[in-house]
Specification:
114 residues
Length: 114
């Protein structure tokens, strides 16, 4: 997990358009870790290629193949959703399965970045 100062610096670079691949990877991992902590479980797989994937939300879990619920998006979309900068209903993403609507869990953090 990133400390608040590191996260703030990364968000500043994202907002200014100067974020690099390492920034996107670090923010993605951090925010997916928060999601898995807030909603532990293995019934939904959230994918943010090429950086990370987590399983979350209590319910039936899977052990092989594609899980029953999958959400996939790019890093900038995930970061914006987790920060509350983008509404679930306006996001471009792929979601399948009955439990794939994450809107009730978002935003994950209180984003004080202007």
């Amino acid at each position: 997990m990133l400390d608040p100062d590191q996260l703030s610096e990364i968000f500043h670079r994202i907002d200014s358009g100067t974020a690099g691949r390492d920034d996107l990877k670090a923010a993605t991992w951090h925010l997916l870790t928060v999601l898995a902590t807030v909603a532990p479980g293995a019934s939904v797989e959230v994918r943010v290629p090429p950086f990370a994937v987590v399983q979350c939300i209590a319910g039936a879990s899977h052990t092989r193949g594609t899980p029953p619920a999958v959400v996939e998006m790019d890093a900038l979309t995930w970061i914006a959703l987790a920060r509350g900068r983008l509404a679930w209903s306006h996001a471009t993403l792929r979601a399948s399965g009955a439990r794939s609507d994450l809107s009730g869990l978002l935003p994950l953090i209180a984003d004080a970045t202007p």
